[in-house]
């Protein structure tokens, strides 16, 4: 993802409207690009800050943004590794079935 695409996706990320693949590309870009990260921080502060002011609570928005980035990213990584396990389990099942069917035939 380049800076232009990243900037376009900032609002969608804040509102949790990005798909998983887009989220991953977005976060990877943010980790490497201080300019876009700065832009994300500002928009997050404005967006969430306005909501919070209406609710009247206290907040550490920069900390929350970091947490949001981390938890979204670790969720993606967790799902990916789960998918790898399911794939491995599927291969095992196919191999076991192949061996089993050979045993029955002979
Ligand atoms: Zn960038």
Overall description:
The chain has 106 residues and is mainly alpha-helical. It has one domain (3-105). The chain has four helices and no strands. Helix 2 crosses helix 3 and helix 2 crosses helix 4 (61-105). The termini are far apart. The chain binds zinc ion (ZN). The site of zinc ion has 6 residues, from helix 1 and helix 3. Residues 3, 6, 29, 33, 35-36 line the site of zinc ion.
Quick structural summary:
With 106 residues, the protein is an all-alpha fold. It is built from 4 helices and no strands.
Q: What count of structural domains?
A: 1
What is the count of helical runs?
A: 4
In N-to-C order, the SSE pattern is HHHH
Describe the global form: elongated
Instruction: Report the biggest beta sheet as strand number plus sense, adding barrel if it closes.
Output: none
Roughly what percent helix?
A: over 70%
Rg measurement, Å: 21 Å
Structural class: mainly alpha
Content of β-strand: under 5%
In round numbers, the mean pLDDT is 90
Distance between the ends: 55 Å
Q: Which segments are poorly predicted (pLDDT under 50) over 5 or more consecutive residues?
A: none
Please report the total strand number as a whole number: 0
Which hetero compounds are present in the coordinates? zinc ion
Topology:
Blueprint: H1 3-14, H2 20-32, H3 34-55, H4 61-105
The site of zinc ion has 6 residues, from helix 1 and helix 3.
Keywords:
mainly alpha, 106 residues, binds zinc ion
